[in-house]
Amino acid sequence: IDAFGKGKQLTVKECEYLIGQHVTAALYGVVNVKKVLQRMVGNLLSLGKREGIDQSYQLLRDSLDLYLAMYPDQVQLLLLQARLYFHLGIWPEKSFCLVLKVLDILQHIQTLDPGQHGAVGYLVQHTLEHIERKKEEVGVEVKLRSDEKHRDVCYSIGLIMKHKRYGYNCVIYGWDPTCMMGHEWIRNMNVHSLPHGHHQPFYNVLVEDGSCRYAAQGAALARGQ
């Protein structure tokens, strides 16, 4: 079956013409579901690498996540994932958990293949330098819920909350008066469909499974028990 020819069924001779070699028994075999998924995700990876536009970066990021879910120890793809995070500029002023993910990826690469020490060291160094530069540019900002400009912030750090839609329990460890994530994250998370969109308080929360998330006040969180 020619998957690129609208599912047309081919004879042996047509297959030989298509691939340019004699078809032997060794070329036949059963393909399991994982192999089919690997091929599909591989095609998505190729598309994501092809163009340097926002949509292809998102496709590349999603397909990398899928591929690494199946094959978590692929060093070259892990390096590509780390470089992609670096390129997209996903850093702690937007979400500290994501920069920790980049550093975790680099540490994993170093464990799998010590020969990648140079590339890993380069990315770690530039990641940390970028963080320091941002700290110097932004400076220390003290946010007080008592400020009039923060009057819409209902919850404080340390409160135990429950997500209305997904049901997980979490604790607040930070907040912003409005969503501080980039346009890509806002689009990917469909924030515009929420009541008040990104113009509402968002909270950094530590979830009971150990993950960190960024949740909207009105549509996501309620006081937990």
UniProtKB/TrEMBL annotation:
Where do the Hemimethylated DNA-binding domain residues begin and end?
A: 152-225
Task: Tell me a Gene Ontology molecular-function term this record carries.
Answer: DNA binding
* UniProt cross-references to Pfam families, sorted A to Z: YccV-like
The superkingdom of the source organism is Eukaryota
| SUPFAM superfamilies reported in the protein's UniProt record | YccV-like
NCBIfam families given for it? yccV
Supply the name of the protein: FBXO21 isoform 7
